[in-house]
Design brief:
The chain has helices at about 5-20, 25-40, 45-60, 65-75, 105-120, 150-160, 180-190, 215-230, and strands spanning about 85-90, 95-105, 125, 135-145, 165-170, 170-175, 200-205, 210, 230-235, 240. With about 250 residues, it is an alpha+beta fold. It has a 4-stranded antiparallel β-sheet. It has a 4-stranded antiparallel β-sheet with strand order 5-6-4-7. A two-stranded parallel ribbon has the order 8-10.
Length: about 250
Amino acid sequence: MSGHSKWHNIQRRKGKQDAVRGQLFTKMSREIYAAARQGGSNPETNYRLKTAIERARAANMPMDSIQRTIDKAAGNVEGVNYEEMFYEGYGPGGAAVMVQLLTDNRNRTAAEIRHIFSKRGGSLGESGCVAWMFDRKGVIEISREGFPGSEDDAMMAALEAGAEDFTAEEDRYVITVAPEQLREVRENLEKSGVPIAGAEVTFVPQTTVNLEGDEAQRMVDLLEALEEHDDVQNVFSNVDLSDEDLV
C-alpha cells in the first residue's frame, strides 16, 4: 500500500515550534472559526469542527477560548471575519506546493505569500496549476506505541473498518480513506478498540519528486517559511525529502 509524504514530518516539527512562538492557538482558532462558519456550530453534526476542537484540546487550548471562537463564527460575538483561500505554486526543483490560508486581508496575504515563494526560489502560480497533482483524502493516524497488536493486526483492523490504504511508518500507522468516509472509518476503528492519534481531511500527492542537496534545503526553507506565516493553516507538497534534509 502506498505511502505518506515526508513533508508530514516537517509539519509535526513546525507544530511544536509554532506552539513556542505562540502561533499555534491562533492557527487553531482560525480553523475552528472556518469550520463553524462552513458547517455550523454543532460539532456532532459538523465533523470538521469536531476534529478542529479535538486538535485544539490536545494542544491544551482552553475550552472557553474554543467556545468564544465558535460564537464569533455563529455571529453571536463581534470579531474579525476570516476568508478561507488556497494558493498554489512551485518550489525549487519544480516541486508542487499548495497553501491553505485563513485571512482577513486577501491583498496583504497574497503579496506576502508571493514574496515568500520568490525569495526562496519558488513561484506562485495560477489557481489549479498544481491542485490536479493531489487527491483530497481522509487520513487517520494510529500511534505504534499506543496500538497493542502487530503491524498485521493494525492493517487488518484498518481494512475491516473500511480503509482504502494502509501505510506503516516508523512511529505510526497511516490509514487513507475517502473524505466522506473519514468519520465512519474512524468510528469503526474506535469501536474495535483502536486508539486514534489523529484524523483529518488533507491533500495527498499522487506522485512525489525527489530533491537533494541545495534544492532540497531551499525547499525545506520555503515550506518552513510558509508554515510560519500567521495566515497559513496547512502546507501540502509532493516533495519527498530524506531525514537528513529535515534536520
